[in-house]
Input
Amino acid sequence: MKLPEELQFIENARLPQKTTQARMDGKLCVLTGATSGVGYQAARRLAQGGAGLVLVCRNPFKATQVQAELQHACGNQVDVLQADLSKLDEVRTVAAMLLEKYRQIDVLINSAGLHNTHRNLTEQGFETVFCVNHLAPFLLTRMLQDRMVASAPSRILQVNSQGHRFGGLNLTDLTWQRRRYRGLQGYGASKVAQLLTVWELAERLQGTGVTINAMHPGEVRTNIGMNNGPVYRFYKRYLIGWMLKDPVISGEAIYYLVAAPEMAEVSGRFFNLTIDEKPAKHALDRELGKRVWMISEQATGLA
Ligand SMILES: NC(=O)c1ccc[n+]([C@@H]2O[C@H](COP(=O)([O-])OP(=O)(O)OC[C@H]3O[C@@H](n4cnc5c(N)ncnc54)[C@H](OP(=O)(O)O)[C@@H]3O)[C@@H](O)[C@H]2O)c1
Output
């Protein structure tokens, strides 16, 4: 029995995944969130594939451990830069450092992200999940955009989520002052906003040799959500933990999307791991996307 279109993602998750043997020697990849879970597995796979890496991480201790491990295992260039993505000033600073230090940026992967069960605001007054999952990668991407055009062919990948299907994006209440905060919807709002800006940027990048796509990295066993209280941690560890897969599959899928020759000109798409998939209808609303773009530019100081 064929599932209705909006549930097709369930079927897609069971399909065989694509892989590539293509090498990435001589390519420089900038990666956020490489100290844990999906980003860590992506960094490992990229290092195995020969890529040079710049890890943008908030915790220097964890980052230098990953750096040492990858350098030891693969002998590649692995640099570390520090930035807390809940602070847009730090995102701006790290983007400036990247532009200063690296003439060529071939791949940008924004993997860092979080899920909060309770409403929490950043020092600047943004809802934290919206800031880390959407505003920070938006700002980093936009600040590196010209360098990536100069480095073309190059690829940008936003690690998004099926969580975008939860919705929750209300442009008149991004800080959840007038609504009761619900973790899944707060998370969904950040991922919808990101998808809507992926379509916008893909259009702007047409003809430049730079592609931008978004992906869901599978339902995998990582630390996401473990910053929440004991009830959530219990739920995650003991009630759903057994259903989650090894995040090695996420690293492999990310590698395919940024390395496979057949992906070189694919842009403006959403992938369930490596399967090209139609996102939820509300994440395809291009009028809403234009408003999200404007609001994101204003919030990040790009306007
Ligand atoms: N796990 C899943 O099943 C799943 C499903 C769908 C989508 N995703 C997406 O996959 C991405 C990675 O998540 P994950 O599952 O790998 O979770 P994770 O294991 O918790 O890793 C999250 C990464 O983001 C970093 N990070 C969090 N807040 C940050 C901040 N303020 N500044 C800088 N870095 C920050 C973390 O750094 P620290 O190591 O310092 O904490 C860590 O490296 C996210 O975008 C998430 O939405 C995951």
User: Anything to note?
Assistant: The radius of gyration is 18 Å. Residues 33, 35-39, 58-59, 62, 84-86, 111-114, 132-133, 159, 161, 216-217, 219-220, 222-224 surround NAP (CB under 6 Å). Residues 128-150 form the longest helix (23 residues). Residues 196 and 286 are 7 Å apart (CA to CA).
